[in-house]
Automatic annotation (TrEMBL):
Belongs to the dihydropyrimidine dehydrogenase family. Involved in pyrimidine base degradation. Catalyzes physiologically the reduction of uracil to 5,6-dihydrouracil (DHU) by using NADH as a specific cosubstrate. It also catalyzes the reverse reaction and the reduction of thymine to 5,6-dihydrothymine (DHT). Heterotetramer of 2 PreA and 2 PreT subunits. The gene is preA. The keyword Metal-binding applies. Its EC number is 1.3.1.1. This is dihydrouracil dehydrogenase (NAD(+)). Keywords: Iron, Iron-sulfur, Metal-binding, Oxidoreductase. The keyword Ribosomal protein does not apply. Coiled coil: none annotated. It comes from Ahrensia kielensis. One of its GO terms (molecular function) is dihydropyrimidine dehydrogenase (NAD+) activity. Residues 338-371, 373-403 form the 4Fe-4S ferredoxin-type domain. Pfam families: DHO_dh, Fer4_21.
Amino acid sequence: MADLTSNFVGIKSPNPFWLASAPPTDKKYNVERAFEAGWGGVVWKTLGEAGPPVVNVNGPRYGAIWGADRRLAGLNNIELITDRDLEINLREMKEVKQNWPDRALVASLMVPCEEEPWKRILDRVLETGCDGVELNFGCPHGMSERGMGAAVGQVPEYIQMVVEWCKQHSNLPVITKLTPNITDVRHPARAAKNGGTDAVSLINTINSIVSIDLDLMAPTPTIDGKGTHGGYCGPAVKPIALNMVGEIARDPLTAGLPISGIGGITTWRDAAEYIALGCGNVQVCTAAMTYGFKIVEEMIEGLSNYMDEKGYKTIEDFRGMAVPNVTDWQYLNLNYITKAKIDQDLCISCGRCHIACEDTSHQAITNMVDGARKFEVIDEECVGCNLCVNVCPIDNCITMEEMTTGSDPRTQKPIDRDYANWTTHPNNPMAAIEPAE
Ligand SMILES: Cc1cc2nc3c(=O)[nH]c(=O)nc-3n(C[C@H](O)[C@H](O)[C@H](O)COP(=O)(O)O)c2cc1C
Ligand code: SF4
Ligand code: SF4
C-alpha cells in the first residue's frame, strides 16, 4: 500500500491533503472535525493584527457559477481575513496542535507591510506551537484596499522584503502564498525565493464578478443594491492554477522551490495532477465547502489506489514527473499528425460534432452518408484539432488517432516520424537563428 505521508518543508503530515486558509479552518471546532475526517493538515484562516477584529458584510458573501446539473463550477467570495479575535484564534490553535500533534498546523498571516507588525505577529504565533507560517499576499478584495494581501503580492519587491523580515524574525518554515492577479506569476515567486522563502503556495482567489443581477442591475452577491469584485475559486480555476504552478516549476530561477498546490482540487485526480506538476502537497477549500470534510476519504483512497496501480511507493516517486513535458509552443512536434475517429457503435447521432466542425472548424464531419444520417470524419479535411472530441457528449466516442505511416490525406505530405518544431520550420523567418531544443 502506498505511503501517503508528507514532509513539506519539514512539516510532517499523514497525507498531503491540507485544508487551505478559509472558513473551514476558521476555528477549533471546524479544524478538529476536519482532522477527525482525515485531513493531513490545515492552514488556519488568515490572522491579522491584534486590535478590533475585522468586520465582514452581514449579507451574502458568495456568488457562484454552476454546470448544467447545478454542480458548483466556480465560487466567488467577498469575505475578509478572520473576523474573530486574535487571542481566541491563538488559544484555539495552541489547543488544536496539542490535541493533534501528528497533523500539520500552519498559521496564515496578513498584517500591514511594516517590519514591526510582522515581527509582533510572528512572536505571537510561535507561542501556539504551529508548524509554519503562510504569508497571505493573495486576498484580492477588502484587504488589498488597505495595503495588504494582493496589494503587496503584486509588487515583487514588497514580497521579498516581507519574506526577509519573516525569515529574520522567526525560525518557522515560511510558505509564501501568491496571488494569481498578476501578469507573470514567476516574478513574485522569484521574489519570494530571493527573500528566502521555504516554499510558495498558489493560487489564492482570482478577481472576479460572477454575474450581474439584471433586475437589480448590480453584481452578485449584492449587498443593499451594490456589489463588488470578489475572489474566484473552485473547479473553474484549476486550469489557471495548474498553469501558474507549471510556470514556477519549470522556471530555472525557481526550479526546486517547494510548491503547495491550491485551486479547484476536488478529487484525488486533481491532487495527483498538481503533484505531477511538482507540488509537494495540496490545499483544498471550495471542495470542502461544497461537499463537507469527508471528501478527504475519497481523496486519500483514490490517490493511494492510483499510486499502487502505478507502483509509486511515495509521493516523491511521481512528484514533478510532468514538469519536463511542459514546454513552449515552439517546441511542439509539428510532425505529429492525428485524425479524429468516430466509433459508430457508441455514436448516438446527436450531430454536435458535425455542427461544431462544419460551422467553426474544418468541415470535416459528415451528417449524411448515402442519403442516411451518419457522422463520419473526412480525413482529407480533418486538421486533428480535437474540437469534436470536446463537444461530443459520449465518452470515448470520438478519439484522436495518430497517423504513423503513409501520407496525410489533407496535405498529401508523407508522414515523417522525426521530431521537427517551429524553431526549424521553413516558414519561420527566425528559423536560422533560433536554437532547436
Ligand atoms: C470564503 C473564502 C475565504 C477565503 N479566505 C482566505 C483567507 O483568509 N486567507 C487565504 O490565504 N485564502 C483565503 N481563501 C482562498 C483559499 O485559501 C484558496 O486559496 C482558494 O479558495 C483556492 O482554492 P479552492 O479552489 O480549493 O477553493 C478563501 C477562499 C474562500 C472561498
Ligand atoms: S478534429 Fe477538428 S477538424 Fe477533425 S473532425 Fe474533429 S473538429 Fe473537425
Ligand atoms: S457528437 Fe458524438 S455522439 Fe454526437 S454525432 Fe458526433 S460522434 Fe456521434
